[in-house]
Design a protein that fits this description.
The chain is an alpha/beta fold and 532 residues long. Helix content is 49%, strand content 13%. Helix 16 runs antiparallel to helix 20, helix 17 packs antiparallel against helix 19 and helix 18 runs antiparallel to helix 19.
């Protein structure tokens, strides 16, 4: 892409186009017959340059065709002035070489974030019970965003905020104490079977609140680990309170002139930063609102990272403006705090709503989903579409062993790769050194489809990272799997009519597909099995 953009700029300069565009945009056409790359540069430049877009595009095409850039077979004009590039297969052969030379560690890796730090806080379930299904989509999303950021060079901290201050902890402790005595929990307590089970484990002399918090966190860690989600930091709200950070934060806001007192309460002037009303930080009775410790917590996170990404549920949407206002009051740009709102998921099984968990009373646990369909299937399914839209998931489809199941479809491609390699070895073929292999033999359209898909991974990773959109990686992985399944059906690697030279070239093609799938699946937190 960079080489083509440079060639286009040189051509525009040679055509005396002024002013030259600051950048030349190149995109992949939606239809294969429109080439491998397309640019609207003539349309974007013509008006300022005082030229007709179609005429400028025609001149540009003629100039480029007279001295074709490397790997370009021809350049064509389309529509009102699009410039389409058709590349030779040699370009894709170079892609193959890049993929297998750089491998899973180096290919599709960017240095865009080198030297920058990001804190990704997600899940942050209350320590009053198991992680439930409502957290699952955010867990998959937050972890994959963190993986994408790491792939693009950022220093990433995965953080879980433990909301262990407040009345819910007292209610949880009272529920455990009641069950320990064989009594019913209080009316506003916790009634799931897990409370009874944990109460039976609780020592007689234990503090129900402190012991219950530790027990809940242990259960949450275990369930999240089974979902392939791990955190660097587990941050307790009570530790924040004990540190004096809340008072320090209030003092800083007051010094900056962003708090005021009214009716005995302390308020944040959040309307100065776009909020619809000012917010209470300390009530007239001296009790802190939820907002005060949350601001102090985010202030602490900013002391450890340049940028914050919070992954919140749909019910927190209204909380975003006040938190952004608070960060601006502390001197941060609004964009330095990103909040990703995860829309709800409806769980079905054979088209019917999933029954509630026996252990958790009125909740479906994350562990129930993992036990039902497996962590891989659950994670990839939750990442099939943007978190901006509601999602319906049928667990029967997710658990199925058929090509209609996206997880099975992708993992089967990876398993087929290893199957081909094993069969080739049985036939006496091991991959020869790459520099001895004639990749120009790879001309079948199915082969080129695999390589075209691989060529898109670096830009897919970068755009998915920049836009916090891991579902784009899911889409790409499915497309590569589809291309490989097509190759698998139409192109023999070893067999009658396949020369040893072509076998070697195709073995390297298979290896490049393995590398690509391994990278994509890892970014989704999904394993790449060698057989199914």
């Amino acid at each position: 892409r960079d080489a083509l953009a440079s060639a286009v700029r040189d051509a525009l300069a040679a055509l005396a186009v002024e002013p030259l565009p600051e950048r030349v945009d190149l995109e992949r056409p939606a239809r294969k017959e429109h080439g491998d790359w397309s640019s609207n540069v003539a349309l974007a430049t013509a008006k300022k340059a005082g030229r007709n877009p179609r005429e400028l595009a025609s001149q540009l095409v003629d100039h480029l065709n007279a001295d074709l850039p490397p790997h370009v077979e021809r350049v064509e004009i389309a529509g009102p002035g699009f410039v389409n590039f058709h590349l030779a297969p040699t370009w894709l052969h170079d892609v193959l070489s890049d993929v297998v030379t750089l491998g899973t560690e180096g290919f599709a890796r960017s240095d865009a974030g080198v030297g920058h730090t990001v804190n990704v806080e997600f899940v942050s379930a209350n320590p009053t019970g198991p992680v439930h299904a409502g957290h699952a989509r955010g867990a998959a999303y937050g972890d994959s965003v963190a993986r994408l950021l790491e792939r693009c060079g950022y220093g990433v901290t995965r953080e879980f905020y433990i909301n262990d201050r407040g009345v819910q902890m007292q209610n949880f402790g009272a529920s455990l104490a009641a069950r320990k005595k064989g009594e019913e929990p209080p009316e506003d307590g916790y009634k799931g079977q897990y409370v009874t089970d944990w109460a039976a484990e609780m020592p007689d002399d234990a503090d129900p609140v402190a012991w219950g918090e530790d027990r809940a966190l242990a259960d949450q860690r275990e369930a999240l680990a089974a979902f392939n989600v791990h955190f660097d930091v587990w941050y307790k709200e009570l530790a924040l309170v004990d540190s004096g950070a809340i008072e320090e934060t209030l003092d800083e806001l007051r010094e900056k002139g962003h708090v005021f007192d009214d009716d005995g309460a302390t308020w944040l002037r959040s309307t100065e930063f776009g909020d619809d009303k000012d917010r209470v930080l300390v009530k007239s009775d001296g009790e802190l609102t939820y907002l005060a410790p949350d601001i102090a917590y985010h202030r602490d996170k900013f002391s450890r990272a340049e940028r914050l990404i919070n992954v919140w549920g749909a019910d927190h949407h209204g909380y975003v403006p006040r938190m952004k206002a608070a960060m601006q009051a502390l001197g941060h740009d609004a964009g330095e705090l990103e909040v990703a709102i995860v829309q709800l998921v409806e769980l079905l099984k054979d088209g019917e709503p999933v029954k509630i968990s026996k252990r958790s009373g009125n909740l479906i646990e994350l562990r129930d989903i993992v036990d039902e369909v497996g962590a891989d299937a659950a994670r990839l399914t939750y990442l099939l579409q943007s978190i901006d839209s509601r999602q319906t998931v049928d667990l029967a489809v997710v658990a199925s062993q058929g090509m209609e199941n996206p997880v099975y479809y992708v993992q089967m491609a990876h398993a087929r790769i290893h199957g081909i390699t094993r069969k080739a070895a049985e036939a006496g073929f091991e991959r020869a050194p790459l520099n001895t292999v004639d990749l120009s033999l790879l001309t079948h359209e199915r082969e080129l489809d695999v390589l075209r898909s691989l060529s898109e991974l670096p830009e897919t990773v970068l755009s998915a990272c920049n836009d916090r959109a891991p579902h784009r990686v899911t889409t790409w992985v499915r497309e590569l799997a589809g291309a490989f399944h097509g190759f698998y059906h139409d192109c023999y690697v070893v067999g009658e009519g396949v020369s040893p030279e072509l076998t070697q070239a195709r073995l390297w093609l298979v290896e490049s597909a393995r590398v690509g799938l391994a990278i994509g699946l890892d970014l989704l937190g999904v394993s790449a099995p060698e057989q199914l």
